[in-house]
Automatic annotation (TrEMBL):
Alphabetized GO MF terms: enzyme activator activity; lipid transporter activity
Gene Ontology BP, a term: ganglioside catabolic process
Signal peptide: 1-21
Short name of any one Pfam family annotated for the protein: E1_DerP2_DerF2
Key words, A-Z: Signal
Entry's Gene Ontology cellular component terms: cytoplasmic side of plasma membrane
Gene3D superfamilies, per database record: Ganglioside GM2 activator
Domain MD-2-related lipid-recognition positions: 24-186
Protein name: Ganglioside GM2 activator
Species for this entry: Galendromus occidentalis
Amino acid sequence: MSCIMMKFFILFCFLLGAASAQRVTFKNCESDKSGYGTVNVIDIKDPILFPSNVSADIDIEVTKAFPEGATVQLTVYRVFRLFGKDRHIKIPCVMKAGSCEYDVCKLLLKSSKPGATFDLCTVWPEGKPCVCPIPETNLRKENASLSFPTLPGLAKFLVSGNYAVNAKFIDPSDKQSFFCLDIKATLG
């Protein structure tokens, strides 16, 4: 699996699985600074298969432009049920995938290049340029088409399960978070 695919898997919906994403939930979480935006809807309409094209309704309000050089700090956990309790095992940052910190603009730029497996610019408002730093805008798209690549058999097996992800967007000028999202996914 390419590093770019893993990054967008974690960053945008954390939905990948051996057969399908059976359940995905998200909630906005507290950040050090407020007023940068809100995720109103991420509704994946189809099961995610590898390979597949799925449609999603997305509504993200960016109420203040992202700071220049912003990063997203991902903390990814594989969740296991043991003795009736959920246990979280942190997935480390390996080869720039997993619980890592990523440059938001570099991710956006890489995603929009030909051959990229997941293009974040598909959720940009029509007629507005897909630019970074991300300006004040409303990223609202119904039936956005998201493409997922073929995964080798072992990779399909390994991504199957329950996940919890915390995505904190960090302002490089003061190292404080300005936007936060918690995502949980059950992957088939």
